[in-house]
Design a protein that fits this description.
- The structure is a homodimer of 224-residue chains.
- Chain A has 224 residues and is mostly helical.
- The first copy, chain A, has a domain of 34 residues.
- Chain A has 8 helices and 6 strands.
- In chain A, β3 and β4 form a beta hairpin.
- Chains A and B meet through α7 and α8 of A and α7 and α8 of B.
Chain lengths: 224, 224
């Protein structure tokens, strides 16, 4: 699909790093829109639409509280800037611990990849059990990007069991039961993302999916 | 082994819940001692001895900060008291969230079980690769409780790979690389405890070991 890609006005202080762009098809009529594929979910289940946008475009927040924990959620593309460029935005990487820097840097992704990740996640959501049914214009849009949508076909990236849309409503101590997962934890692009059960994602940890599967195969070999 | 079991004076405000007792063999000479099996480790590697004592006898601390997060580390046997008995110690369970109460209550264990857990962990430590060599009196003491010690035989409860004693010195963001594990997460006794790699323990999560193994077998079946 060829996107319109007109620049959309944004209040973000990082707009000069990556301007928001219109992702309606080139030559569209009507107003430009950055996330046209999310318009329906925004209406019927804003929480899920917001989660998709957040997971697709933002780094994770600092899960531990301390002065050197680093900035809270920040656009992933900001983390592509080098240390001296980041200083202009008040982010002093030299004050952070090595582990924190690594964690922030590994979330880095360019704007275009993030948008496609958001679209991919939306495509997957609509294929979950008990998901809302997308209007035909959004269905066609997403299918042009990622292929035919098959109802009830979205499975956990890790355990490959179906994921029920209703799990989005389940959260324990503020932690959602469904998490956005990366097959290879260090790459944020539409081929590499999917949804997973929180416990599966935790079990995978820092391993790539292949490393995780090799690891559990070794365990099975040991115990049998 | 028959323990001396003389009461040892303690400054703990919970001494009336469970008095500290001597665990030297009955009829021993010299001063009474609560953890005679830890005397050598206390001298050569206090950090590891303290960890064993802490993991064996204390609940975990509140990992999340909030008013209803519950008390910080507390003796496991205190968590055997009922709500009104706990109130006398200033612990108001009715103020805590259900999940926090469940977490605290599942750590409950009686004093005698905790001492045997500490002894079992000590027995396992001395059988790790690169572990210090125990003096013969402690070796005999532990072997009488848990059987012959075989150098380099201690493996991770979960992945069954050897655990190197030197991993005790490795910690990331205050998290030790070796954790005390429970085969069945809800039972704290010497048969049920062991050491595991932190990442293995995290992967096991709330599952029992058997549930974990069944779960990873299902995953392997799905991906093959």
């Amino acid at each position: 699909m060829k996107f319109c890609l007109n620049t959309i006005k944004s209040r973000s202080k990082y707009a000069e790093v990556a301007a928001a762009k219109c992702h309606l098809p080139a030559g569209h009529t009507g107003k430009c829109c950055e996330y046209p594929f999310l318009e329906h979910l925004l209406k019927v289940d804003k929480r899920v639409a917001d989660k998709i946008k957040r997971d697709a475009t933002m780094t994770t927040g600092a899960a531990w509280k301390s002065e050197d924990a680093g900035p809270n959620r920040i656009n992933r593309w900001v983390m592509l800037l080098n240390d001296s460029e980041l200083l202009k935005y008040g982010i002093d990487m030299s004050q952070l611990k090595t582990g924190v820097i690594a964690k922030l840097r590994e979330k880095a992704a360019d704007y275009d990849s993030c948008i496609l990740v958001a679209a991919k996640l939306t495509w997957l959501v609509y294929q979950m059990e008990n998901a809302p049914v997308p209007p035909s214009n959004i269905k066609e849009y997403l299918e042009e990007l990622f292929g035919k949508m098959i109802p009830n076909s979205t499975v956990c990236v890790i355990c490959r069991q179906p994921i029920d849309y209703q799990l989005f409503s389940i959260a324990e101590r503020g932690k959602a039961a469904i998490e956005t997962c990366h097959k290879n934890p260090r790459m944020h692009n539409s081929d590499n993302v999917g949804f997973g059960h929180r416990e599966c994602n935790i079990a995978q940890g820092n391993k790539t999916l292949d490393e995780f599967y090799s690891w559990i195969k070794e365990i099975i070999a040991k115990i049998d």
